From TrEMBL:
Range of residues in the leader sequence: none
InterPro entries linked: METTL16/RlmF (IPR010286), rRNA_lsu_MeTfrase_F (IPR016909), SAM-dependent_MTases_sf (IPR029063)
Protein name as it appears in the record: Ribosomal RNA large subunit methyltransferase F
Keywords tagged on the record: Cytoplasm, Methyltransferase, rRNA processing, S-adenosyl-L-methionine, Transferase
S-adenosyl-L-methionine recorded as keyword: yes
């Protein structure tokens, strides 16, 4: 077996150079774009404007302001209890995937509606399609097993008319499947995105929430505030992250020509060795592990392709070349 791919270190600046959220939040500008945010802005102990990140309503109001100010999303909301994602980190994933495509396109990021991306587990927040479409003009298919999440995501798409032709949503009918039942015969994607369930059980997810709340200094007895929320399918799955990403690999092996770059976030570094072994056994032609960071939080995503160099060149010419 060849040596496992090493993890490329993140750059000195923790966020991607194209990330719009480098530096401090400009709260005066954000409140100008979204006046509702003002009700949650306070002066923190360092004398700076901020919001209480332990308050779910404040986090949602901040996300609404960020999406309106930076991405032109005028109407965004999620039902109570669903995952309210940290937008800077989500944007980083999109930009680094764009770099993967650019590396096979002469250093130029493929842009426009001809580029199609599949978001596995799009969630109620629909965050990756919103960012990816605004930044690069890509078209998205978002899949999810949760009908409620898809209804909420569809409401976001419908409320922002420019998204109607850019984002399609599909329900995964079998929670044991990922790509089967979603990718249609003859359909191809330039990349996939995935933020897999982190925990292995509901109890583990609840314990993680308790620790997170305690770290924020906001634990409230047995039921801490869920500042970023999350439903069962968003937070846990049997076997946790490691089992879910192995399933991604096994199913991607059945669709080797349907996607240029399969990718998934990997929160636990200890998941990597098993994932890399599974990819080697599946016959992946190339594997990359890209490190990311947001403040003190370290993360990464793994990308793999089954395409030969000749197939990659043909893909580029057919899908990204001059029209």
């Amino acid at each position: 077996m060849p040596p496992l791919p090493s993890e490329r270190p993140a750059s000195k600046d923790p966020l991607h150079p194209r990330n719009r959220h480098r530096g401090r939040y400009d709260f005066p500008q954000l409140m100008k774009s979204s006046p509702a945010l003002a009700a949650f802005v306070r002066i923190n102990p360092f004398g700076d404007q901020s919001v209480d990140f332990a308050n779910p309503a404040a986090v949602k109001a901040l996300n609404q302001a960020l999406l309106r100010h930076f991405y032109g999303v005028d109407c965004w909301d999620i039902p109570a209890g669903y995952l309210c994602p940290p937008i800077p980190g989500r944007a980083d994933y999109v930009h680094y995937v764009a770099d993967l495509l650019a590396a096979r396109n002469g250093g130029v990021v493929p842009r426009g509606p001809g580029v199609r991306v599949l978001d596995v587990g799009v969630g109620a927040n629909c965050i990756y399609p919103l960012i990816g479409h605004y930044e690069y003009g890509w078209r998205f298919v978002g899949s999810d097993v949760d009908a409620g999440a898809l209804r909420a995501a569809q409401q976001i798409v419908a409320a922002n008319g420019v998204l109607a032709d850019a984002i399609a949503l599909r329900q995964q009918p079998d929670a044991r499947r990922v790509f089967d039942g979603i990718i249609r015969p003859g359909e191809v994607f330039d990349a996939t995105l995935c933020n897999p369930p982190f925990h292995a059980s509901a109890a583990e997810a609840a314990a993680g929430t308790q620790r997170k709340a305690a770290n924020l200094g906001t634990a409230r007895g047995a039921q801490p505030a869920l500042n970023f929320g999350g439903q069962n399918t968003e937070l846990w799955a049997p076997g946790g992250e490691a089992a879910f990403v192995r399933r991604l690999v096994l199913e991607s092996q059945q669709w080797p020509a349907a996607c240029f770059w399969y990718t998934t976030l990997v929160s636990k570094k200890e998941t990597l060795p098993g994932l890399h072994r599974a990819l080697h056994q599946a016959g992946a032609r190339e594997v990359q592990t890209i490190a990311m960071a947001q403040g003190q939080k370290k993360s990464r995503f793994v990308a793999w392709t089954f395409l030969t160099p000749a197939q990659q060149a043909a893909w580029r010419q057919a899908r990204w070349g001059p029209k």
